[in-house]
Amino acid sequence: MSQRDRLVRAKRVVVKIGSALLTNDGKGLDLPAITAWVEQMAALHQQGIELVLVSSGSVAEGMTRLGLTERPSALHQLQAAAAVGQMGLVQAYESQFIRHGIRAAQILLTHDDLSNRKRYLNARSAIKALLELKVIPIINENDTVVTDEIRFGDNDTLGALVANLLEADALIILTDQEGLFTADPRSNPDATLITETLADDPKLAEMAGDGGRLGRGGMITKVRAAGLAARSGAATLVASGRQPNVLVRAIKGESFGTLFLPEDTPWAARKRWLAGHLQTRGTLVIDAGAVRVLREKNSSLLPVGVKQVNGRFRRGDMVQCVSEQGELIAKGLVNYDQEDSLKILGQPSHRITELLGYVAEPELINRDNLVLV
Ligand SMILES: Nc1ncnc2c1ncn2[C@@H]1O[C@H](COP(=O)(O)OP(=O)(O)O)[C@@H](O)[C@H]1O
Ligand SMILES: N[C@@H](CCC(=O)OP(=O)(O)O)C(=O)O
């Protein structure tokens, strides 16, 4: 099997489009290019592939709209430019998606939204709800409210974290180069393209340099992003967004760009990633039936199988699941805090709304967030 088949089989894909490419190196939004990418995304959407777009360009477009030739150095001016530019960015995408009868949604995230477990789970549920509604989420960093100390800065990292958040099968990073070269091709004309590599190969960092005038991260953040995405099992393709029909051809498995592969199977990688959460905040004592379905059927943990709730935890915290005999069975990210878990313990999921006044998820721990120990 060719490794490119990973892209052919992908059902959920995060596409990241960088500033350098999107603004044609600072000449304002490249509308013909946006038209073409949206057309390709629409074709993939028709095939039933779930797509999430992470797009840069707010600051660059804000600079154009405000007539600034230099990227502002003062934080408040950058924030203002981002606020102006984000309007143009989403308008450009929305007007194109609508031509294909596809709804798009804007999501602006900050570092806190992904590092705080509760907000992480909330963002995840909201984006998954959009995907179920066949809407294409368009994500950018919320540049207007973040300060330098707490920002992702480059959208490669944001793209990878979104791929982790949604357990995407693939991350496609479109940029202004054909992929990762052995050295920055802007200053090394003899550099050659790496076509395929393991995402965590330490040699990659030596090859990758920083970015151009408009892009924030350069190739080094793309290499790091591929490593991050691999943790939840996603393969990353870095390719030139200027080649015709790039997204459709990538998903057909054509060989171009640089493909970064996770070492493990996606499933094992995701479980390893979950198992890496060392700190548990509480314990759920589960009955024998729940022990059996967790172990044998790889099921989610439903409130009905829980006998006892111990510890203080919040929605999104890691908790352990133990049998009534005290044997450690599994660990997972819990969907309800300990107070609400206590209220729904032993109950069928259809009673959650009645008992809590809301329903976050029918499971206490979803099987995707559960790892057997
Ligand atoms: N080894 C490398 N291979 C390819 N590009 C590299 C490498 N090292 C540095 N770069 C630079 O990274 C740039 C792309 O990153 P960046 O400017 O941040 O774009 P984007 O806005 O698409 O994220 C390229 O234009 C290139 O000059
Ligand atoms: N959030 C910023 C993106 C930062 C940026 O340019 O990132 P990248 O395209 O990864 O180099 C913006 O929209 O301008």
TrEMBL record:
GO terms for cellular component: cytosol. Catalyzes the transfer of a phosphate group to glutamate to form L-glutamate 5-phosphate. ATP binds at residues 16, 175-176. Substrate binds at residues 56, 143, 155. This is Glutamate 5-kinase. Its main location: cytoplasm. InterPro entries: AceGlu_kinase-like_sf, Asp/Glu/Uridylate_kinase, G5K_ProB, Glu/AcGlu_kinase, Glu_5kinase, Glu_5kinase/COase_Synthase, Glutamate_5-kinase_CS, PUA. PROSITE patterns: GLUTAMATE_5_KINASE, PUA. GO terms for biological process: L-proline biosynthetic process. The gene is proB. Its EC number is 2.7.2.11. Residues 282-365 form the PUA domain. Belongs to the glutamate 5-kinase family. Pathway: Amino-acid biosynthesis; L-proline biosynthesis; L-glutamate 5-semialdehyde from L-glutamate: step 1/2. It catalyses: L-glutamate + ATP = L-glutamyl 5-phosphate + ADP.
